[in-house]
């Protein structure tokens, strides 16, 4: 299951500073279409947040944009 989080990290890093939809993450990371109550992607992002060390600039690694997806925050 850990490799899914790694794949999500890679995909978000490729789109640094850009919103990546949950649908796109599900398709690319899990290889399946997102279903209405599917929380798998959210769990993988949550695991990444716990796994990654705190950033020196104090900003979060990821932002959740409700109804849109996630973005990896670029360094300030």
From TrEMBL:
**An individual GO BP term:** regulation of DNA-templated transcription
Instruction: Tell me which Gene3D superfamilies the record gives.
Output: Winged helix-like DNA-binding domain superfamily/Winged helix DNA-binding domain
DNA-binding: is it a keyword of this entry?
Answer: yes
Which keywords describe this protein according to UniProt? DNA-binding
Q: Which Pfam families match?
A: Trans_reg_C
Q: Which GO terms describe its molecular function?
A: DNA binding
SMART domains named among the record's database cross-references:
Trans_reg_C
Tell me the PROSITE patterns matching this sequence.
Answer: OMPR_PHOB (PS51755)
Source taxon at top rank? Bacteria
| Positions of the OmpR/PhoB-type domain | 1-74
DNA-binding region of this protein: 1-74
- Record bears the keyword DNA-binding: yes
Instruction: Identify this protein by name.
Output: Copper-sensing two-component system response regulator CpxR
Lineage of origin: Bacteria, Pseudomonadati, Pseudomonadota, Gammaproteobacteria, Enterobacterales
